[in-house]
Amino acid sequence: MKQGLLTEGKNPLFDEIVYETDIQRLIDDGFLSPLRSKAGKEKIDLAGVRTRQGDYLASDMEEAVNKNDVTEKAVAEIIQYGQERKAWLIFCVSVAHAEQVKELLTAEGIGAECITGETPKDARARILADYKAGKIKALTSQGVLTTGFDAPLTDMIALLRATKSPGLYVQILGRGLRISPDTGKTDCLILDYGGNVERHGPIDRITVDHIKAGKGTGEPPVKECPECFELILAGLRICPACHYEFPEREKHEAEASSAALLANQIEPEWLEVDEVFYSIHEKFGKPPSLQVTYRCGFETIREWVCFQHGGYARQ
């Protein structure tokens, strides 16, 4: 996710991608488990939470989850939604937060354990073995269990944290994608309290950025002023042309996300097309394709039609 495709950049490892599939196709073919989301009541308010090294600052997030008893209310909701679920993974913002969530679950009679980077190796092995054997219902964690952790019976994941990293987001949800016919698992319920689904979109629509060797040459991000339609830098709060002041970013609703986790869960939206433009789209060493641009009011939508390609692209 950070360095780009292995077929790009200076002296790439590979010449081209020979075959690729996607998450939805693997779900349809029975190799992966469907994901489900459920609307809830609580949400972490990220107003004032700072960013460091491309992700939210853990200390600020810890303060955010402690506001207005968000953690206690979210845990009550997790217990409610998890009654028919066999194995829960709960991702927290700090070691103290993970311990707090574990204590709240235990107080309600839920068999729970906590794993962090500070958990001794022997204790970690025992806890994970008990979880996979179904002896522990819930695992709370911070900084671990996002990659390389294989527990197919996991059928509920709660994100009591936010992340700006699409890679971390995919890895967390990926913990619930494994199928488990032996335990009767039919899907995995995702409870997102950090606005991650809205931030990153459906998991099967996330792609690796096309990062080239050397310094970036892209244009800085811009936005359009709704008053005078001037294109200005995205970070500006006041339009320099007409002095329109952009409103503060709205706080999150006090509910878990019910946004689409997979692209096929998105409801289609009809747009009125004002104009259509066609142009040849060429890439060195590849057959050309046709770029079709639809202008729908102030929104522009593009697609590429690959007449001269083969395989999946032409399909």
What tags apply to this protein structure?
13 strands, alpha/beta, about 325 residues, six-stranded parallel beta sheet, three-stranded antiparallel beta sheet, Rossmann fold, 2 domains
3D shape: globular
Q: Work out the helix count.
A: 8
Please give the largest β-sheet: 6 strands, parallel
Overall radius of gyration: 23 Å
CATH topology title of the largest domain: Rossmann fold
CATH architecture descriptor of the largest domain: 3-Layer(aba) Sandwich
Classified in CATH, the superfamily of the largest domain is: P-loop containing nucleotide triphosphate hydrolases
Helix % is 10-25%
Strand order, biggest sheet? Answer: 1-8-7-4-6-5
**Amino-to-carboxy terminus distance:** 27 Å
Number of domains: 2
Describe the structure in your own words.
By secondary structure, this protein is of the alpha/beta class. It folds into two domains: 183 residues, P-loop containing nucleotide triphosphate hydrolases (Rossmann fold); 46 residues, no CATH class. It is built from eight helices and 13 strands. The chain has a six-stranded parallel sheet, with helices on both faces. The two termini are 27 Å apart. About 5% of the residues have low confidence.
